[in-house]
Amino acid sequence: MQTHQLNGKTYFIRTFGCQMNMHDSERVSGLLDSCGCLEVASPEEADIVIFMTCCVREAADTRLYGQCSSCKSLPAPPSGRRVIAVGGCIAQRDGAGLLTNLDNVDVIFGTHSITHVAELIAAAFEDRDTHVLCDENDPAPATSMPWHRAENYRAWVPIMTGCNNFCSYCIVPYVRGREKSRPFEEIVDEVTGLVRMGVREITLLGQNVNSYGRDLFGAPRFAELLREVGETGIERIFFTSSHPKDLLPETIEAMAEVPAVTPQLHLAVQSGSSRILKLMNRKYTRDQYLDLIRRVRERIPGIALSTDIIVGFPGETEEDFEQTLSLAREVGYAQAFTFIYSKREGTPAAKIDDPTPREVILERFDRLVKVIEDSAYAFNQHDLGATVPVLVEGTSKKDATKMIGKSPKNQTVHAPLPEGTTIDGLVGKIVDVKVDTARTWYLSGTMVGSPR
Ligand code: SAM
Ligand code: SF4
Ligand code: F3S
Questions:
Q1: What is the pLDDT at residue 436?
Q2: Does domain 4-133 match CATH 3.40.50.2300?
Q3: What SS3 class is residue 12?
Q4: In terms of CATH architecture, what is 150-381?
Q5: What residues are paired with 114 via a beta bridge?
Q6: Which atom of ligand 2 is nearest to the CA of 243?
């Protein structure tokens, strides 16, 4: 079967994991659309079901097996046959080995092979064999594919793929390969095109955006990229993730000087103990991280800082953990993603024995969450009485009379829709909200002035 014979088939994609995977799904979706396929809202209606998988923690693995198996009990789609495809990081890690746990998979495609997904699916419709492609040397970049975005006012823009850091607990470098930067002009042109299409906010994506360009130019050029992208007319620039060891002074300068760069920085710390940071192979100490935070704050006062923290790294003692708590208190994060360490086979940390009982780790995790909640609450209090520009995303799930959107510091903001207004004309607009309530995870207030 040629890919044009996919014309008219319906597809459903379920995505697990990080923004990189979400964006890969947008590319897969764009490719299938260009073959004449139609996206549907549930696996029941779909001729093609695609799982874009994640293996960063064990829970993500387990969820895939459950969801894939549950497809077996679905009634056949109108076309009579359903093709199940597994892509993303588990596919890259396990390849054909996935078939040991899953017997209903027709296509397995790795993170480097998404440009071939339409051919593989077409072949599976044709011969009913399982088609596997997980070639890490595939030269075709996924970023050259068309993409299909759910929203027309904001977009993810990958600037690089892969990771060179090999943090000792992390599987990502093994499933995404080495750092590969996209050409500078290609990124700037893509953002220019997005601005023309009405996009107002972008998030530049990479596992370590601070080292953007090192493989192309011999030295990182992320600061320069921020400045160029800032000239395109885009109104809001976010970026993630930023590795502390590579956050250069010129990047902090560019963040402070480029008006479109939002006053927000995600800087994963992982642990507050220098001993654990060394075992994690993070290449900075607690003091170096805190010094970086001081320099960022000096240049960008009021910046919203967020982070990732792992609790229960093998051998973490109560003293190490207390260092994490004290660092989190000292920084005063606006937000943090907290994770319990999950052993990933094949990583160096998987070989370290850990005598710490699970209950101790869970109890530590709860203590950390409490510290983060307190700091997020304290951070939001600074905006009480302020007027913040909010990019409108839609209505609140709990109350359709309230609009919901994001501030430049990535805070969720709610406000009642003014009498006689519907959300329709507002999504993608920026409205000013005068804040009268500041809670841990959101601000709320009243809309003032006109949407723009
Ligand atoms: N490259 C990003 C960085 O270094 O900031 C992080 C990407 S990773 C997909 C997101 C987060 O998952 C990491 O920052 C880390 O906190 C967490 N993570 C990675 N491996 C983990 C593991 N084995 N167990 C628990 N959490 C893990
Ligand atoms: Fe994983 Fe570390 Fe790379 Fe982030 S920087 S993806 S945590 S190896
Ligand atoms: Fe998961 Fe792969 Fe992202 S392992 S976190 S989907 S890079």
A1: 97
A2: no
A3: strand
A4: Alpha-Beta Horseshoe (3.80)
A5: none
A6: 5
CA distance 328 to 321: 11
Helices marked H in 269-346 — which ranges? 274-279, 286-299, 318-331
Nearest CA to ligand 1 atom 15: 308
What's the average pLDDT block by block, 10 residues per block, for the chain (452 residues)? 82 95 94 95 94 92 85 86 95 92 92 93 90 82 78 94 96 94 96 96 97 94 98 98 96 98 98 98 98 98 98 97 98 98 96 93 98 98 98 93 96 93 91 97 95 93
Give the pair of three-digit tokens for residue 154. 């904001």
Cα separation, 427 vs 410, whole angstroms:
16
Domain layout of the chain by residue ranges: 4-133, 150-381, 387-448
Structure tokens at 40: 């549907």
Written as one letter, the residue type at 53 is: T
Residue closest via CA to ligand 2's atom 2 equals: 167
pTM above 0.85, yes or no: yes
For domain 387-448, the CATH superfamily is Nucleic acid-binding proteins (2.40.50.140)
Whole-angstrom distance between the N-terminal and C-terminal Cα of the chain? Answer: 49
In the structure, which protein residues have their CB atom closer than 6 angstroms to any atom of ligand 1?
Answer: 18, 56-57, 169-170, 172, 207-208, 241, 243, 268, 270, 308, 310, 339, 341-342, 344
- The alpha carbon of 352 and the centre of ligand 2 are apart by a number of angstroms equal to 18
